[in-house]
Amino acid sequence: MQQTKITIKDVAKACRVSTQTISRVLNNRTDVSKSTRAKVRAVIDQMGYQPNAFARGMRQQSTTFGVIIAGLQHKGISTTLKGITLEAENHGLNLILKELPNFETVDMKPLIQSLMAHQVMGIIYAAPEVDNNWRRVQENLPPHCPPMVFLKGNPSSAPITISIDNYQGAYLVTSHLIEQGYRNIAHISGPLNWFEARERKRGWEQALVDAGRDISKQQSEQGLWDPGSGQKAFERLSSNYPEMDAVFVANDQMALAVLHVAWKHGLTVPDDFGVAGFDGISESAFFVPPLTTAIQDFRGLGALAVRKIRQLQEPEMSGPKVGSDTTILTPKLLVRQSTQKD
Amino acid sequence: MQQTKITIKDVAKACRVSTQTISRVLNNRTDVSKSTRAKVRAVIDQMGYQPNAFARGMRQQSTTFGVIIAGLQHKGISTTLKGITLEAENHGLNLILKELPNFETVDMKPLIQSLMAHQVMGIIYAAPEVDNNWRRVQENLPPHCPPMVFLKGNPSSAPITISIDNYQGAYLVTSHLIEQGYRNIAHISGPLNWFEARERKRGWEQALVDAGRDISKQQSEQGLWDPGSGQKAFERLSSNYPEMDAVFVANDQMALAVLHVAWKHGLTVPDDFGVAGFDGISESAFFVPPLTTAIQDFRGLGALAVRKIRQLQEPEMSGPKVGSDTTILTPKLLVRQSTQKD
DNA sequence: TATGATATTGTTATCGATAACAAATATAAG
DNA sequence: CTTATATTTGTTATCGATAACAATATCATA
């Protein structure tokens, strides 16, 4: 049944021309007569011929890039990936996806080599910066590694990065809580070995300092991004910091757990207690009550990364490398009911 | 700087042996002396040589498969993808990802041809069955298309499918509501041009019929999976069907909106009103109150799909095709507070 | 009609790896 | 010390496409 694959030779034979002529038609070159071109096109269609990308890849520039991610179960990651896939589709690029089994993986060699074997034009590294994984990844890059674009980490620690300004976002959210008249604003952070978590915490602290609050009295607890850990962190805060009347939570999922506990304890949000999150997941508009948060443009982030990869391809880019290349996106404050004291 | 890529020839020259010997070492063949093998390995490491996958791909069986998805923003899809990536990683397979811009896309030819160009060993089609898109996709497959595995649709409508039994899951959830003593159980469905939505609705109806309820009196409204549409559907139900005392919602996100509206209206869940969802997203444990739902093993679904692709590769599989090949997974009922009348 | 410019097609070498076959070397048996 | 056998290495052709170059056909102009 499954007869052997159709090649350019089969098409050439059917058209009674040379393979080169077929190749010319495939590549839309001008030096083919109209009639020949039409005939070849027809035969190609009729036979369902598809040029072999491997053979092509041996002679042409690659149109494939790699994506290394971790934590696809997180909304932010999967949305970033969506931005990447759509932008890739738009430009006819192929995308080979690699997911790390966990955030601690730092030996990228096998993954990167597998991508290099596919002659990728570049690699988007979209796994978050946790502990010193970025540095270790960068120290362990194989020789002749294709250009890499790093997302979701410290703008300065890699040559090419596209980051979201978590510090600024957290600062915005916290300032908003202050303006709303909350006095004792706690923080539930993400795991502090994450760069993003540290930045958000830093934004919270600085906003308090700039508002003249006594920082030594404000408290924070660490969560692990998931609702369960957020719940525990909030319970610790409740007992250690009874004067707390608001909390800035480092992501929406943990904020959901805080709302949940508040509801169980009969606390009224936002009147008794203010809650703000971070990320802007779509569900947060339907929390009880709707959650104030900072919205991040993950999809734009992904699209931007692909654009950067394409730029690196272009010849003029191979000019003088001007040190590190950094782009920073800023989250937007999204005020909802959970922080709007009557 | 970026000196030309290192090839097998460079390695051969450095080792003062033929390229064939290098190739033998690369493929772990036995007919190489220990000393030669060791030397070659050392040089390969030292030079950072990586065999070109294109050149290899021209002579060897492919280790790459394609994945076509749509709606990465949905938890179910991204989790399925995670199952796929991890299973692929486990077996050293590469994965080229294609995302459809929308669910209505039925002209797969460009996508599939691009995958065929990469000589994929198979394709996992993980975009849901909406309207008659599956049939149209299958009618429009290019000739010599690699084997495809269809997920998330009607088990019978494609030759190879792995499905989740949405009917059974919905039946379980609805039966549970009945057992809890709710009398007038409405349904908020997904968009009914989705196969999955129709199946869930069918399960709801059948459970009511089997319990001897008068089906003509039970009502349902259609949502679009997102919380906003769920909210509107619930408001329509509230006015059209005032005797309603419970609702089975076709996914957790819309159920979140229902809880939200119930809270706004001062309805007490579960005592005044029962709410059950579908999907089992992790956040649903922290809704207010925690949501009863049917949990689907999306990750297992993805892993299974990869396993199926690998099986298709094996020679013994190319024996007599026995019509369609179907696997069905059943969701599990997860009872939480939102349906537990004290 | 001859001539050079232009348009169209074909030939050969090549990309990097591997299969199939051939050759050389080492080892064992008689 | 041969001859047979096993082990190790090298040579050539090949996968499918394209680049570089060569060849032919077509046309306008002097």
List the helices and strands and how they pair.
The structure is a homodimer of 342-residue chains.
Chain A: H1 8-15, H2 19-26, H3 34-47, H4 53-59, E1 64-70, H5 75-90, E2 94-100, H6 109-117, E3 123-125, H7 133-139, E4 148-151, E5 160-164, H8 166-179, E6 185-189, H9 195-210, E7 220-222, H10 227-240, E8 246-249, H11 252-264, E9 274-276, E10 293-295, H12 298-313, E11 325-329, E12 332-334
Parallel strand pairs in A: 1-2, 1-3, 3-4, 4-5, 5-11, 6-7, 6-8, 8-9
Antiparallel strand pairs in A: 10-12
The first copy, chain A, binds a DNA duplex (30 and 30 nucleotides) through residues 5, 7-9, 17-24, 26-27, 30-33, 36, 51-52, 54-60.
Helix-strand string of chain A: HHHHEHEHEHEEHEHEHEHEEHEE
Average pLDDT level of chain A: 90
Number of helical runs of chain A?
12
Question: Percent of residues of chain A in beta strands?
Answer: 15-25%
Low-confidence stretches of chain A: none
Helix content of chain A: 40-55%
Largest beta sheet: strand ordering of chain A? 2-1-3-4-5-11
Largest sheet data of chain A: 6 strands, parallel
Radius of gyration of chain A: 26 Å
The total of beta strands of chain A comes to 12
Shape descriptor of chain A reads elongated
What structural class do helix, strand and pairing data of chain A support? alpha/beta
What oligomeric state is this?
A: homodimer
* First and last CA, distance of chain A: 73 Å
Largest interface: A-B, 61 and 62 residues
